[in-house]
Prior knowledge:
By secondary structure, this protein is an alpha/beta fold. 35% of the residues lie in helices and 16% in strands. The protein has nine helices and 14 strands.
Amino acid sequence: MSRVYNFSPGPSALPLPVLEKASEELVEYGASGMSVMEMSHRSKVYDGIIKGAENSLRKLMGIPDNYKVLFVQGGASTQFAAVPLNLFRNKKADFVNTGLWSKKAISEAKKFGTAVVVASSEEAVFNYIPKLDKSKFSADADYFHITLNNTIYGTRFTELPETGEIPLVTDASSCILSEPLDVSKFGVIYAGAQKNIGPAGLTVVIIREDLIGRALPGTPTMLDYKTHAENDSLYNTPPTFAIYIAMLVFEWLEKQGGVEGVGALNREKADLLYAHLDDSKMFSATVSGADRSIMNIPFVTGKEELDAKFVKEAEKAGLVNLKGHRSVGGMRASIYNPMPIEGVRALVEFMKEFERGNG
Length: 359
Ligand SMILES: *Cc1c(COP(=O)(O)O)cnc(C)c1O
């Protein structure tokens, strides 16, 4: 077997023990006589899986009892529309524009009402999180939206905006479960699973109960949070296999010491790479200071041909998917929970070697 170190931004690497367990159970799950993929989502066995996944997630994130956990489909991109459809009253929301995913959330909200951009870092290719001026917040906003971790640009919020009574909504697709997060500060947290939870196809929505049941007239049934909340995410067929893998990932996370344990390791991994980037004469990080993401780390040499050569040679050395997003260029190392510290060490060693050979 020759598994590589996979630095993909998503879908991304899964923990090897999870893949091994899934492969052991692929043909027959427990004593059910069938694969998880073949069983009814309303069977007793499957009930254990979906409830198990939810309970594990609740425990890991410390989700308060007055929050529902919904397992839905359509990715974070569908939530860009679901959030305004469910939360709009005055049909107005505030947004911080910190990148492509923020912009998409803004443009979907605009279809149903007013999206106010209270701050943006677009003028600097989103390489920082803008300082927020509370006097610019809309007093009549139905919610305040932030992208907690910016997958493409490598920034993250380290301080949450104080929005008072206005629900704070966040797209946490690329940082959910990467470190402790106070769920009670949010009205809605949503995340596509394919970065830090499990396979593509599953989307997790964590929502405060009082925000459910007030969708705009005309909201499609499948986009109404009430539909999924009232039916324990079993209104229709959920992504059954993806939820099963998510359950295994959550169990694996518990064994890593939960979000505290994995969070400490994530910080160590990120520190290791940033320390080298700050030290290197060839490579530099595109983000500086406190806003640096601990999940997605973009870096450049400053020369396009050299970047391309690096990506190509890294791949030959078993360090794959390091090409940066086209809007930033260069490289990006996505180091989600399953990336072991050995993978980051191997990357740093390879960078040193490359610098010696090409300096
Ligand atoms: C990947 C990503 C998305 C898109 O998610 P889909 O599940 O593909 O719709 C949205 N937001 C963030 C922050 C992401 O990283």
